């Protein structure tokens, strides 16, 4: 029970604190609203939950055996994250209807993004390696994935809704552009703790 409580706190802290997914969801909420941002939200939740299951059922052991592979994926993901930050920084402000002219991230794009998101890798590998004793295998992996799925939906909905709520405040296109640039810079800054202590099996 103590380990389950610790795992729950780990999920809450890592899911609700700012990170690439949450910052992008908030930006999507501001630029496209909740309805158009829902595929992005569902893709994040489904994609990360699936990642935890796959890591728990064997991929984590591969990273332990070949740490270089983990490093390659981490740096490739960081490069892609920098590209996304640039896209956010230069994205146009919403038009008169309150929705940006571009397209929000789709469900499948959000699912695929989890595999190049360095924070997702750190969270998945850390949770499986640290809290594997919460139950017998394979129920431990199912419990970990289920907690991430439930709290992930709540977290993603909170950040998406918060971004959509900002539409009432940031009505000036210039203010929206400033917001997008700030979010892009925070997205880049979110990489620092990952690279400062982002080894497989380390904490968040």
- Element pattern in H and E: HHHHHHHH
Structural class, by secondary structure, is: mainly alpha
Rounded to the nearest angstrom, the distance between the terminal CA atoms is 21 Å
Number of helices: 8
Structural domains: how many: 1
Strand content: under 5%
Question: What shape does the CA trace take?
Answer: globular
Q: Could you tell me the number of beta strands? A: 0
Model regions low in confidence, pLDDT < 50 over at least 5 residues: 198-204
Main beta-sheet strand count, sense and barrel state: none
The helicity comes to over 70%
Mean pLDDT: 79
Radius of gyration: 17 Å
Short description:
The longest helix is centred in the first third of the chain and has 46 residues.
Question: If you had to describe this structure to a student in words, what would you say it looks like?
Answer:
Helix content is 75%, strand content 0%. The chain is mainly alpha-helical and 204 residues long. The two termini are 21 Å apart. 43% of the residues are buried.
How would you summarize the topology of this molecule?
Elements: H1 2-16, H2 20-65, H3 67-89, H4 107-113, H5 118-130, H6 139-165, H7 173-189, H8 191-196
Helix pairs in contact: 1-6, 2-3, 2-4, 2-5, 2-6, 2-7, 3-7
Key terms:
204 residues; mainly alpha; 8 helices; 75% helix; globular
């Amino acid at each position: 029970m103590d380990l389950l409580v610790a795992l729950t706190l780990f999920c809450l802290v890592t899911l609700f604190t700012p990170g690439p997914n949450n910052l992008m969801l908030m930006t999507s909420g501001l630029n496209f609203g909740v309805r158009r941002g829902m595929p992005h939200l569902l893709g994040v939740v489904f994609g990360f939950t699936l990642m935890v299951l796959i890591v728990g059922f064997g991929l984590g052991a591969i990273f332990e055996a070949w740490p270089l592979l983990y490093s390659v994926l981490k740096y490739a993901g960081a490069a892609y994250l920098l590209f996304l930050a640039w896209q956010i920084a230069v994205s146009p402000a919403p038009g008169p209807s309150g929705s940006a002219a571009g397209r929000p991230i789709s469900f499948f794009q959000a699912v695929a993004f989890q595999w190049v998101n360095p924070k997702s890798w750190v969270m998945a590998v850390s949770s499986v390696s640290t809290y594997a004793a919460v139950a017998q295998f394979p129920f431990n992996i199912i419990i970990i994935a289920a907690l991430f799925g439930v709290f992930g939906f709540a977290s993603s909905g909170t950040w998406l809704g918060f971004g959509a709520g900002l539409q009432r405040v940031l009505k000036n296109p210039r203010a929206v552009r400033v917001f997008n640039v700030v979010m892009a810079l925070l997205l880049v800054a979110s990489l620092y703790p990952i690279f400062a202590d982002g080894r497989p099996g380390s904490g968040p």
